[in-house]
Amino acid sequence: MTGTDGNEKRVAAYSALAANDPVLAAMIETHGTPDPFVWNDGGRTGTSNFAAMTLHIVGQQISITVAYTLYDRIAAATGGIPDPDTVIALGPERLRGFGLSTAKARYILDLAGRVRSGQLEIQHMDDLSDAEAVTALTAVTGVGLWSAEMFLIHQLHRQDILPAGDIGVRRAIARAWTLNEAPTIDEVRQRGQGWAPDRSYATALLRRSLTMTEGTPA
Question: N or C: which end of the chain has fewer CB within 10 A?
Fold first, then answer.
């Protein structure tokens, strides 16, 4: 979400968070008001939701630098931004040859098959509710809740998503609220109830705070 409308919504969201939670208010003073919907992939995926989800799958449990390297190999082999047809044409062996695990090659091919068949209309999800979008995405083999939530924030620009299982979010909460250990997923969800309907903004702020204090990429 960009432009004047996006800026106004960001100001309103952070104002509401600050008014409702003094800890977040202090974090805003220190770390500013990051835009949760900015996703810096260097233009690799363009406006393609399929390509973006492919990159999300490639990036599961590896560093962003390695994820970009592997994704770029797929993009080079498909002649540009990957689409379902060109990915399916590669097949599992070539995908594994680019450095993907057998599992990730299977996940990406399942995604491509569902998009090509129309089972998943990944480019046209704006009319789905958050819950419906998560259900549609997690039906893809290998796409878990975290990957779906990242997609909802970065590609669909949904305002009220809190990825409670994100270890960065959990560590940021532990640091900000001086907890002895990272909260559980249920504890994150409970704490985040008071941040609705702006939980995507709270997520961006928490991850920004971790980046600034620990140097962890958000």
Answer: N
Q: Is-above-0.85 flag for pTM?
A: yes
How far are the Cα atoms of 54, 93, 112 from residue 70, in angstroms, in the given order? Answer: 11, 14, 17
Going residue by residue through the chain, which has 218 residues, state the pLDDT in tens, using 9 for 90 and above: 456 778 999 999 999 999 999 999 999 999 999 999 999 899 999 999 999 999 999 999 899 999 999 999 999 999 999 999 999 999 999 999 999 999 999 999 999 999 999 999 999 999 999 999 999 999 999 999 999 999 999 999 999 999 999 999 999 999 999 999 999 999 999 999 999 999 999 999 999 999 876 654 44
DSSP annotation string for 99-155? T--HHHHHHHHHHHHHHHHTS--TT--TTS-HHHHHHHHHTSTT--HHHHHHHHHHT
Distance of CA 150 to the CA centre of its chain: 2
DSSP 39: -
